[in-house]
């Protein structure tokens, strides 16, 4: 037992002396840059939902899988042996070195927080109007679906916190195994996270409230972040940085599709801003359709609908009470 404690103490001391390793300051600078980039990359998505006044175009299951995956990833890095060693180092190193050692945890926490904000915006601005049935359409999403997604994310977060805290108190020796389990779950959820969003974007034919600038920043950033965490955590942290590689690849596929639809929408607009003369079908509730309807920023026509209890909770813009129309081609 004394031998095991000595080995653990030696490993902790090595982590605490990380400031003496070559490339320390380079990795520190890169870590700070990534932290700022994570925050800035999510701001366009937050702004787009608020500015459009609707979360139309975002798949509820994309939000569900992203929120639960982020929770598992955050819990994974909190309970990992490497992170616990970094926290232990704060007792013997300076405040600066302590903050530096915790940057990896802060990065994952920042990502979890930013996606949680997307979850709340999705719920607040969810278009609460009945969906017109379409024989060729997939399943329709209602306000009840959005609320169910929110409750599942909340319940999952509470369960993860309770289990992690209980193991930390009762069985700290198996926290490493629990962290790997969380990492595998997070990677699995992230691997399928973009599938419903890819399907939704493909079906709608436009990006909706999905932010292309966010994906332009995050897609290459995922690989840079994975490399930074791999350098900091080593092979033992595979369940943490491996998640970023998977999400980077899938987000790249979604980004390519979104750019193609955006280019197609812009080309479909006439030079005088008139509505393209294509057959269109209604996605969402419309009471009537007028000739010369206004177009949205994806090139699709929009139809005004009266405000009611079915409109989004916060009517941040005129688009929040509109039904969106996509090409049937």
Describe this structure in words.
The chain crosses the membrane at residues 24-42, 62-82, 102-126, 147-169, 175-195, 202-226, 238-261. This is PQ loop repeat protein. Its main location: membrane. InterPro entries: LAAT-1, PQ-loop_rpt. With 329 residues, this protein is mainly alpha-helical. It folds into two domains: 22-267, no CATH class; 280-327, no CATH class. It has helices spanning 2-16, 24-52, 60-79, 81-89, 95-101, 103-124, 143-170, 175-204, 212-233, 238-268, and strands at 280-283, 302-304, 322-327. A three-stranded antiparallel beta sheet has the order 1-3-2, with no helix packed on it. Helix content is 65%, strand content 4%. The model is unreliable at 1-11, 130-138, 272-306 and 316-329 (pLDDT under 50). The radius of gyration is 23 Å and the shape is globular.
Briefly say what this structure is:
With 329 residues, this protein is mainly alpha-helical. The chain is built from ten helices and three strands; from the N terminus they run H-H-H-H-H-H-H-H-H-H-E-E-E. It has two domains: 22-267, no CATH class; 280-327, no CATH class.
């Amino acid at each position: 037992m004394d031998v095991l404690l000595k080995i653990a103490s030696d490993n902790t001391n090595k982590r605490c002396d990380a400031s003496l390793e070559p490339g320390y300051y380079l990795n520190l600078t890169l870590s700070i840059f990534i932290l700022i980039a994570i925050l800035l990359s999510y701001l366009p998505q937050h702004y787009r939902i608020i500015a459009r006044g609707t979360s139309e175009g975002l798949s509820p299951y994309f939000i569900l899988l992203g929120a639960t995956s982020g929770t598992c990833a955050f819990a994974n890095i909190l309970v990992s042996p490497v992170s616990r060693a970094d926290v232990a180092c704060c007792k013997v190193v300076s405040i600066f070195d302590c903050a530096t050692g915790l940057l990896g945890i802060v990065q994952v926490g920042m990502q979890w927080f930013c996606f949680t904000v997307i979850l709340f915006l999705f719920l607040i601005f969810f278009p609460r109007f009945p969906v017109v049935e379409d024989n060729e359409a997939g399943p329709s999403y209602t306000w009840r679906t959005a609320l169910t997604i929110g409750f599942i994310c909340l319940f999952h977060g509470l369960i993860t916190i309770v289990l992690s805290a209980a193991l930390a108190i009762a069985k700290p020796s198996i926290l490493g195994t629990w962290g790997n389990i969380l990492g595998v779950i997070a990677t699995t959820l992230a691997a399928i996270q973009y599938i419903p969003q890819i399907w939704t974007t493909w079906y709608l034919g436009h990006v909706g409230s999905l932010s292309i600038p966010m994906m332009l920043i995050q897609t290459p950033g995922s690989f840079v972040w994975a490399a930074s965490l791999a350098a900091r955590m080593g092979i033992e942290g595979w369940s943490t940085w491996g998640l970023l590689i998977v999400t980077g690849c899938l987000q790249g596929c979604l980004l390519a599709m979104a750019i193609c639809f955006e280019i197609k929408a812009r080309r479909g607009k006439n030079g005088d801003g008139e509505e393209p003369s294509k057959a269109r079908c209604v996605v969402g509730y419309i009471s009537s359709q007028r000739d010369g309807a206004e177009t949205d920023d994806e090139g699709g026509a929009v139809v005004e609908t009266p405000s009611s209890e079915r409109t989004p909770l916060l009517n941040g813009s005129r688009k929040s009470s509109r039904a969106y129309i996509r090409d049937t081609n």
